[in-house]
Design a protein that fits this description.
alpha+beta; Alpha-Beta Plaits; 4-stranded antiparallel β-sheet; about 45% helix
């Protein structure tokens, strides 16, 4: 099973810049060993369903430690038997342009 997610998570009760908090989350994502791609408005991650949901929970718990309000958006795409979609989906479109 391959699940590809795109999610954004950050506290809303902090200063204008939330990059220090996003960096904490990205460290957790890096340490997970899952394939990911950081973007300007969110991060895409590929893995198994349980790995992905565990990762999102760990990211939430990290920010909850010192935040009274956390914003989270998540989009998910499951495709049975597929892998390498983090790069493959983009490449497929670029080849058609």
């Amino acid at each position: 099973m391959s699940v590809l997610i795109d999610f954004a998570i950050f506290p809303t009760d902090k200063q204008t810049s939330v990059s220090p908090y996003v960096a904490r989350v990205v460290r957790i994502i890096k340490e997970s060993g899952l394939a990911f791609k950081l973007g300007p408005m969110g991060t895409s991650v590929e893995g198994e369903w349980t790995e992905i949901m565990d990762l999102v929970s760990r990211c939430f718990e990290e920010l909850r430690k010192d935040s009274n309000r956390v914003y989270l958006t998540l989009k998910a795409d499951y495709r049975k038997g597929a892998s390498g979609r983090l790069e493959g989906k983009v490449k497929s479109v670029e080849e058609k342009i």
